[in-house]
Amino acid sequence: MTHFGIVCPNSTGHLNTMFPLGQELQRRGHRVTLFGKLDIEAKVIAAGLEFRAIGESEFPRGSVAKSFGELGKLSGREALSYTVNLVRKNAEVLLRDAPKLMKEAGVEALLVDQVSPEGGAVADYLGIPFVTICSAVVLNREESVPPFSTNWNYNPNLLGRLRNRLGYQVLKRVTKPVTKVINDYRQEWKLPAQSNPNQRYSQLAQISQQPAELEFPREELPECFHFTGPYHYSSRREPIAFPWEKLTDKPLIYASMGTLQNRLVEVFQTIASACEGLEAQLVISLGGSASPESLPKLPGNPLVVEYAPQLELLQKASLTITHAGLNTTLESLNNGVPMVAIPVANDQPGVAARIAWTGAGEAVPLKKLNVSKLRVAVEKVFKEDSYKQNALRLQEAIKRAGGVQRAADIIEQAVSTGKPVLA
């Protein structure tokens, strides 16, 4: 059996993707260790995986919450730049410490989140195989597809490709610090530099938790790229107290801005105003950004909680209002729930663009958000049946995609044969 190491961002969305993969590999007899910051140790142990700390001096307990708290106050370009700086710092520490720690632990293969490209460099240095896991929207760059950080529509004609090319040039400048850190270590380790981000991903297997139907048409994905659909929903999660007795028999609208970019309290006020007067019950999850008591009284008297049992509520929901994080998006689609997306930063605009492109919802960019625009979008998705039907179509696509079992099959084949697993 194989000892797998996991490298991924230490945020809830990425962990909720990696945990089920690790659990499935353990069920098959493998050993799995996640390398991360001290703040996530308890979560990793609770998920049943082994844990090794990285950067204990740079990232003492409490540092994750502090950095994510700062990120939650930002949006757009500021949030992207802040995220890139976090990724750079994480990469520096992982590249410095991980080779020694992984050798000591006896790690034989890596699962590397696509948002943690430094993990692939560590695998190359150690001479062990790795598989790329796309926990966020697919990041592979090609001219026919807009950059992940934009809400641009899919437009593969000449003008669209020119627009995308310019967007990728901007993205290249913004992410240059991360590229430099990785290539500096690769040079020190006598490994070839990687100028194209696509070179950082595994040549054995790249696995996305999106169903293929939620991705724009692709022309240049490698033959080892696989759309397996989501697996995060099978992960064990801590129970969350919720006042179920306060739910009415009205259709349920569930609103969540996730656990990172969720400190823009005025967004919750706009959501409440936009839903006021609808024949529906609005439930708002603050995702830990504030306590319900700290908010002013919201229009329409919605049910507001600090945290919500999201999976259980989505089974009852008629509509989700979301930041377009990929986890909430996939969990909504897994329950056949259409969405209104309010993307804030990072890959959320790209996910929102795909929600709109599939017809499973509408998107209202944060810069254009106001009560009237959000009200129009909410009423449209809530009342027009086509959105529900498209969400159900994507629900069926998820069921066909294979999920965690198929992903684990691909991982095992890639590592055991050392050869690309072709889609």
CATH C-level category of the largest domain = Alpha Beta
Rounded to an integer, what's the Rg over CA atoms?
21 Å
Q: Largest beta sheet: what is the strand line-up? A: 3-2-1-4-5-6-7
Total discrete domains: 2
Residue stretches low in confidence (pLDDT < 50, at least 5 long) are none
Strand content: 5-15%
Order of helices and strands: EHEHEHHEHEHHEEEHEEHEHEHEHHH
Provide a count of the helices. 14
Q: Give the rounded overall mean pLDDT.
A: 93
In CATH terms, what is the architecture of the largest domain? Answer: 3-Layer(aba) Sandwich
| Residues in helices, as a percent range | 40-55%
What key phrases describe this protein's structure?
2 domains; 43% helix; 7-stranded parallel β-sheet; 423 residues; 14 helices; alpha/beta; Rossmann fold; 13 strands
Describe the protein.
The chain has 423 residues and is α/β, with parallel strands linked by helices. The protein has two domains: 243 residues, Glycogen Phosphorylase B (Rossmann fold); 156 residues, Rossmann fold (3-Layer(aba) Sandwich). Helix content is 43%, strand content 13%. The strands form two sheets. Strands 3-2-1-4-5-6-7 form a seven-stranded parallel β-sheet, sandwiched between helices. It has a six-stranded parallel β-sheet with strand order 10-9-8-11-12-13, sandwiched between helices. Helix 4 packs parallel to helix 7 and helix 8 packs across helix 12. The chain is globular. The model has no long low-confidence stretch (mean pLDDT 93).
